[in-house]
Amino acid sequence: MILPEVEFERLRELAEDTLDTRVIEGLQRHLNAGVEELLDEADLDALRAAPSLLAF
Fold it and tell me: pTM (2 decimals)?
C-alpha cells in the first residue's frame, strides 16, 4: 500500500507535535526541579544591552 501524500503530511505533523510536547514537558520538569532557570525581564534587557555575553 502506498500512503497518500496528504496522509503522510498529517502523520508527520502529528509526530512533530508529539516531539514538541515532549520537549516542552521535559523543559517544564527541569524548571520545576530547579535544574534550569529563566531570566526575568530586567536580566533580558541587560543581556540585550550588553556588548557581549561576557559583559553580561
Answer: 0.63
